[in-house]
Amino acid sequence: MCLSRLWFCMPECLECTSQRAGVCPAIHRSFFMQILRLRPRLFVPARPSLLQCAVSMVLASGAGVVLAQTTTDTQTRVQSDGKTLDEVTVTATRQNTTQWQAPASIQVVDGIAFERNVQVNLSEGLAAVPGLQVRNRQNYAQDVQLIMRGFGARSTFGVRGIRVYVDDVPATMPDGQSQTSHIDLFTLDRMEVLNGPLSGMYGNASGGVLLAYTQDGQGPASITTSAAAGSDGMRRWGLRVQGATDAQVGVQNYSLSTTRFDTDGYRQQAQAQKGLANAKLGIGLHDGSRLKIVLNHVDVQAQDPLGQTRAQMLQDRRQSPTAVQFDTRKTVRQSQVGLVWDKKLNADQQLHVMGYYGQRSNRQYQSIPSAAQINNAGHSGGVIDLNRDYGGAEARLTSALQVAGYDALLVTGLSYDALKDARSGYENFIRPANTSYGVKGAMRRDETNRVNSLDPYAQATVWLSPQWSVDGALRYSQVRFRSRDLYLSNGDDSGSTRYSAWLPSAAIRWQPTEAWSFYASAGRGFETPTANELAYRPRDAAGQQQLGLNLDLKPARSTSWELGSKWRVHPQGLVTAAVFQIDTKQDIVSAENNNGKGSFRNAAKTSRKGVELSYRQSWLEHAQLDFAYTYTRARYGQDAGAAWSGKRIPGVPQQSAYASVRWAPDTGWQAGADVQALSRIAVNDANAEFANGFATLGLSGGYAWKQGAWRWQWFARVDNAQDKDYVGSVIVNDGNSRFYEPAAGRQWSTGLTATWQF
After folding, report:
1. Spatial contact of 699 and 721, defined as CB atoms under 8 Å apart
2. Where is the TonB-dependent receptor plug domain (predicted)?
3. Among 219, 284, 301, 439, whose CB has the most other CB atoms within 10 angstroms?
4. Is cis: bond before 571, omega within 30 of 0?
5. Is the dihedral of CA 55, 61, 62, 67 positive or negative?
């Protein structure tokens, strides 16, 4: 039977066709039901007045607006519809398959994991993902630290080596730098985390992939307000208006939200304020296609407490004498708009087109003494002023077809991303006194940087039999960097460079029983230096900052392998296991972090080997158990004469574990407990110092009830219940030995959420 006739056929027809083709009816039906989900829902063109009102509401609330789009309409929750966790559809593989069927290490975290918390940091809900460490720096000027299979540990701010998407819109720039500050945890639906060789199909800097999806408007209109408070003057407030209509053309669903967060900080010089707003509209067009519009704005003003030396940490974990002296701080503002359009071309093909544009400004005051700037003509100053315009587009065609009589799914696409940075540097003091820091002084740097990437790609899945399937992907990734120096008093430091790589990946999956599956995968990876990593050359032998861009820095190229297994434990349980190895040449590693400025170098070879285990089980209808364990052996290769030869890669824990149990009925009392443990972490290449390992206990409770049109949810939580002293994250290779960012002691938080449904 022609494949196109099966798009809308009944299950009985599928079963009949499957038997004639020699394919297991259950597998065949599951495959075509997944294909059916490619059909776009009908969304609605907004009336101008309604769209203007929606945007105005969000902007007036004090933060701004986000643009986000979800590619699947199966954003299911275990608590709401009874689906088992492994049946939730995932989009990370671009095949609209389930976590169970994906031939890769992929985890799904429901937004509910963040609901019973303050909904500010990614570290609140991602601890149950094996292979991923999310470290809270207690420093909102630098955001959380994400490490995935050892990638990302070198980052002193933002995210490196991991690609991030928010509602299908890239949060990773073409140079590989990612931001997470605009992810709205207040309206989060789910997160997908993809590890392993297949992440290479996302191109540059894809040591792993994090995809966040916010909630679509659904059901009758409702208003939700939420407030939370906690230790160290923490306050968070949120408001959301959402709903859906039955219209086939016009606005079909909408979600408008805003949040405000304030904290005095655990340490000195650690106050922070953050405003965030999102608007998400689903629109149905007359031709049956769908359009989603997502608007986002985030505004962060945060002091920077910097790191501590070991002596400072042992003396007073809250002190930040250098930060106070230099008044270190950062201001970030970002506005972004995105459009995602889906069109069903025929029974077997669907077109997906995405475009986005944004602006980001960043001003940072650093802790650099005046003498270092005055005595070095090439110094770029102690104030960074960055204004960025960025945007891009992607077109993707998904086709169901047959290859030599086998069912197959083919995805082809082309993505383009670009950014333009106006980067300036200023002294952080006023001459001639040179003693009062934290001000904007004389200009020391003025340049324009441009980065763009153009990546064609193709990937395919072929179902060979009821038990066997194969996947393959190929992407050509190319990145171009150009810099024009406008500050010529110390010479012209303009320059340009190009990077490119072919990135193949492949996987094979075997399912011997209904409850057990195995897979093997292999692939190539590619990571270019970011614009910030090219901005500063390492200091010379005399300790002086060298002039010009760090164009000697090469892209890292890796080869990875993975073997994995998944086991369905009924009822509603899933066990996953994976063994991996990643060999990298010219790995980009930290050379030095000195007074807020980082320089980088290439390591000849590095290796990352490890094991990941996870177990998730739901039982007694309202109870859930989660367990995750990761072992990672991340080492430098043998590099003759180098101090780091054969040593641990700093910033990467060798072992981490997490376990939690939770009782969470829709109404009534709720309770939970979790334990997180991490082994010690090297803080520099020489492995001369380590941050000690730790294990912490978290306790939570709450109560949910309904009263007429109102639904109420109260929670209370204690983190680090033992009040342990430990290091939350490290600053790798800090030039002043300020490696340590202490974690907070015992912390409490409580909050109340109220929803009124019209």
Report:
1. yes
2. 101-209
3. 284
4. yes
5. negative
**Domains along the sequence of the chain with CATH:** 1-36 (no CATH), 37-757 (2.40.170.20)
Q: Residues 447, 482: contact at Cβ < 8 Å?
A: no
Total residues found in the chain within this entry: 758
CA–CA separation, 601 and 592 (whole Å): 9
Burial classification of residue 569, based on how many CB atoms lie within 10 Å of its CB (0-12 exposed, 13-18 middle, 19 or more buried): middle
Residue 244 has pLDDT above 60, yes or no: yes
> In three state form, how does the secondary structure of 228-243 look?
EEEHHHEEEEEEEEEE
Better-predicted residue by pLDDT, 545 or 238: 238
Tokens 């650690």 belong to residue: 270
List pLDDT tens digits, range 706-757. 999 999 999 999 999 999 999 999 999 888 899 999 999 999 999 999 999 9
Q: What rounded mean pLDDT belongs to the chain?
A: 86
Tokens of 505: 């990946």
Q: What is the mean pLDDT of residues 603-629?
A: 93
User: How far apart are the C-alpha atoms of 69 and 514, rounded to whole Å?
Assistant: 33
Statement: residue 445 has pLDDT above 60: yes
For the chain, the straight-line distance linking the first and the last C-alpha, in angstroms and rounded, comes to 48
Cβ–Cβ under 8 Å, residues 558 and 583: yes
Helix (H, G, I), strand (E, B) or coil at 628: strand
DSSP state of 737: S
Closest CA to 143 of 284, 334, 2, 15: 334
User: HSE-up of 8 (CA within 13 Å, CB side)?
Assistant: 3
CB 635 within 8 A of CB 605: no
Judged by phi (left if over 0) then psi (alpha if -120 to 50, else beta), residue 20 lies in: alpha
Q: Which residue has the higher pLDDT, 159 or 165?
A: 165
What is the distance between the alpha carbons of residues 162 and 295, in angstroms, rounded to a whole number? Answer: 23
| Residue-level pLDDT at 544 | 62
The 10 Å CB-count burial string (b at 16+, else e) for 417-435 is bbbebebbbbbbbeeeeee
